[in-house]
Amino acid sequence: MSISRRTLLRNTAALGAFAGAGLPHIWIKNADLAYAGGGEIKVGVLFSLTGTTAIIEESLNKATLLAIEEINAAGGIKGSKIVPIVEDPASDPATFSEKARKLVVGDKCVSVFGSYTSASRKAVLPVFERQNNLYWYPTLYEGRECSKNVIYTGAVPNQQQDEFVPWLVKKFGKKFYLIGSNYIYPKEENNYCKKLLEKLGGEVVAEEYVPLGHSEFSSVINKIRSTQPNVIFSTVVGDSVVALHRQYKAAGLDPEKMPMASLTTSENEVAAMGGEAAAGHFTSAPYFMVHKSPENEKFVEAYKKRWGADKVTHFVSEACYFQTYLFKQAVEKLATSDLTPPNIRDAVKGQSMIAPQGKVEIEPENLHTWLWPKIAQAKSNGQFEILVEAKDWLKPVPYAAYPGQSCTEKGLVEKS
Amino acid sequence: MDQFIEQIVTGLSIGSILLLVALGLSIIYGSMGIINLAHGEFVMLGAYAAWVFHTYLGLGLLASLIPIFLVVAAFGWVIERYVLSLLNNRPLDTILATWGVGIMLQQAVRLSVGSELRYVQLPPALSDSMDVFGIPVSSYRVFLFVVSIALFGATWLLMNRTPVGMKLRAIIQDRSVAASFGINAKRVYALTFAYGAGLAGLAGALVSPLKSVSPDMGTGYVVDAFMVVVLGGVQSLAGTVASAFILGELSGGIAFLQNDTVAKAIVLLAIVVLIRFRPEGLFTARVRA
Known about the structure:
- Chain A is α/β, with parallel strands linked by helices and 416 residues long.
- Chain A has helices at residues 5-35, 54-73, 93-106, 118-131, 157-161, 164-172, 184-200, 218-227, 239-250, 267-273, 275-278, 294-307, 315-332, 341-348; strands at 40-46, 81-87, 111-114, 135-137, 150-152, 175-181, 203-210, 231-235, 260-262, 282-285, 352-355, 358-362, 369-370, 374-378, 384-389, 405-408, 411-414.
- The termini of chain A are far apart.
- Chain B is 72% helix and 3% strand.
- The radius of gyration of chain B is 19 Å and the shape is globular.
- Chain B has one domain.
- In chain B, a hairpin with a 2-residue loop joins strand 1 (129-132) and strand 2.
- In chain B, helix 3 (65-82) packs across helix 8 and helix 9 packs across helix 10 (237-257).
């Protein structure tokens, strides 16, 4: 058979078409073996069980495992069980990065749930971006990040402050004392707070940062006494929150005249400081344990049954819980052979569910979450009383403090 | 003027907490020369003991102070007897051993009672504030001040006016000569270490209602304690007191004028510079070497 130029062309084109269709098929088949082998879907769970932030991250680990166990008990995802691979990054950013690489490259996890602090998230970010894997981050954080490889299910500054700051100004007055722990999160939150205050004609009498883990607040309390603010706006984190509240109480200051308004004080911290030190102060968050909804009753009951009747749920553990269900919904949309981290990311865009706090949805543009801001006051029994519930859910705007920038599907866009 | 007095009182309060935490180390490191890196963990154990007595036995903080002292002291005795006494005269090994003991204690607490922050109640009688020179001060802080001075007094008497203290001082000057006079050095060392550990435990219990209780709370305290003892001068109890209050006033004052981050840095820097020019610390006990 002689090969004419025409048949050669035709055959080559056919071969090309075959290769075009076939090669990705081979590639997906490999991915298929890697990501969903033997009716199992491997995910990483990366919360510190030792070290400084284990205090809170332990509860995040528990909430994530609870959701995974529930999903598996209800038949898994289309017959496949979720297999959690738990690693302990020991509250150390370098260890976070190392363990993340192990989960993504070594264990071939299709997603990883993890991190509490911004420092640990920033440390694992390069791993997920380079490997094009997917990280699920449950914590409220400072915003100003736009990664295609992270699903952010915690609140960003606009979702915690847009309702809160005007409400505080109206109720208590315009003089704010800003106090935070000395790292990026409190600085960005205060940055946004100052912008809101400027619009409302408020005044910042002091802006001050204490070292992480700081526990001696007597000089701070003296300064608060001498500046007489209307509101103490607190983004102090971890065990410092406990020390600050207890010393405030012991110094005889009155929350009715000069309340602390916090973005970080949850049921977890209140349990450690005791109800009497927490009573009267305010927190803004999308979730509180006392929130009344059938979904929340179910969550709280299941959590206590699984981990102990004295345990509390809080605004980060709730996000851990619902983001695991969002993961399930996204995976359900995909054929087993399509199960790759980028496909899960695309599938989770616009996914919504009724979470314990209310209906949440992943914003397709920036992979952050639509949430329900709430303002609550701590009571002496260690729980909160929700005073204000947003009438509408709030869009996540991770660059709210930076009007020139916005996070879109194409990445960070600078408006001129 | 009011602010000035307020700040002086605050400094005294910070100083009294530093003194509480450093007193035990002043005995263990200052007198016995053992660099005890597990000191912070003894503080932590005291805080957890307060939590256990409160939560499981319903004892108030004040009622459980003596049991806490005994429990942590007994613990210190065990550590001295079965770890440190085997490493006599090997300071480097002792540093490593006490560091290891500290890590093990942290993890043991974490594994047995979990890593959540724990809650110790402020004694209800002391939960208000009172007037000191016309300044409102937390009653509990005043109480801590009194207790820290009292404990210092008791320790000074123990070291200088009791047979055990005399024997200890003899051993410190020359162990073999003291032993040849019939002093059981091992026993005195173990008792002294236990006493120092017990003081650390008391400190932990006493600060727990003002601060927070967690497995790694000791890390900060051990640094504070060493700063105080080194600045005050090894082997000088009075130096420990003076340096605790100097550091208290200094860090409180700078924190008021600037902020706590700056205060921490400046205080550490000041100590480093001072140690450079006066390695023996501010106060030196006159000892014939």
